[in-house]
């Protein structure tokens, strides 16, 4: 890979293009962050991007979470036991 400056030349072909990224925003096991994020998927489909942008510049799909009854101990334990909720994906 040819390099100019601190990045590969291939990055020049991405300038001006719109893309959506699904990123892993989960907590790392060792709690040490190097400032990087893991990209899980990339979307360059203009129809999907236009639909996403039409909703506003800072729109992110959100998972609906049912309300928790603080007086019911079962609700508190069930919500924290779900491994599915620990994985987080966001569009940026």
Automatic annotation (TrEMBL):
This is Replication factor A protein. Residues 69-92 have a biased composition (Acidic residues). Residues 64-92 are annotated as: Disordered. It comes from the Eukaryota.
